[in-house]
Amino acid sequence: MIELLRRGSARPTTPPAMGSELPLLRWRQDQAVRPHPVMARLAAATAALPEGRMMTAPEQAELLAFLVESIGAELVVEVGTFTGYGTLALSLALPEHGRLITLDATDWGGLGDRHWQEAGVAQRIERRLGLAEPSLEALVQGPEHGRVDLVYVDADKKGYPRYLELALELVRPGGLVALDNCFWGGAVAEASDQSRQARALRAVVARCREDQGLAMTLVPIADGLLLLRKRPVAQSTGTSIR
């Protein structure tokens, strides 16, 4: 989820080196991002909340929707619903028969549900309330195991190492896992930052880098989006995914 200020500090999530590019980034968002009109209304409603900074960045939501459409995804799992902006982007990219399971500990006043209904995609979305880890474990034990096309994780950063392992259990060979906030406002690059969040994110990146069963790229969009592809066994060399 995009954060204009890193939690607990006054540091912008955009690294200083990117400061000169901000006009270009604004131009990109104005000219190359084309959100659904209902998404624009949901973004405005979310921005009015005290926690509004946690919303998935529009350009990142667009990238995720692009990936869903590109791989022909039919089953998507989202970890961290918040107000449902990312949920809406993902569900709009699914086919009519597609299904999105979104997990969160609260429904945030049903804000997402109203906009999903307005956009005509509510029938594709299944909301499950509960903590991320047990909710993911339940999916791993269910018929979704090994069948999910894409898992998008945007939840408690301290839990990312465990969420990653469960996500890899869920996705099919060739499926994708996307993890948000992997820059954590630049904290991951500072050895002096030993917060649990920064340490967890570093561990996730290091674990993925060493796993030849995963194709990996860390995209410098918003607060850093880690994209993983679970390689089919025939493409894997070295460390096993499981």
Key terms:
242 residues, alpha/beta, Rossmann fold
Would you summarize the structure shown here?
The protein has 242 residues and is α/β, with parallel strands linked by helices. The protein has helices at 22-32, 37-47, 58-70, 85-93, 111-119, 132-140, 160-170, 196-209, and strands spanning 75-79, 99-104, 125-129, 148-153, 171-179, 214-219, 225-230. The longest helix is centred in the last third of the chain and has 14 residues, at 196-209.
Structure overview:
There is one protein chain. The protein is of the alpha/beta class and 242 residues long. The protein has one domain (16-235): Vaccinia Virus protein VP39 (Rossmann fold), CATH 3.40.50.150. The protein is 36% helix and 18% strand. It has eight helices and seven strands. It has helices at residues 22-32, 37-47, 58-70, 85-93, 111-119, 132-140, 160-170, 196-209, and strands spanning 75-79, 99-104, 125-129, 148-153, 171-179, 214-219, 225-230. Strands 3-2-1-4-5-7-6 form a seven-stranded mixed beta sheet, sandwiched between helices. The longest helix is centred in the C-terminal third of the chain and has 14 residues, at 196-209. It is globular. The two termini are 28 Å apart. Residues 1-20 and 238-242 have low confidence and may be disordered.
Lay out the secondary structure:
Layout lengths: L21 H11 L4 H11 L10 H13 L4 E5 L5 H9 L5 E6 L6 H9 L5 E5 L2 H9 L7 E6 L6 H11 E9 L16 H14 L4 E6 L5 E6 L12
Parallel strand pairs: 1-2, 1-4, 2-3, 4-5
Antiparallel strand pairs: 5-7, 6-7
Helix pairs in contact: 2-5, 3-4, 4-5, 6-7
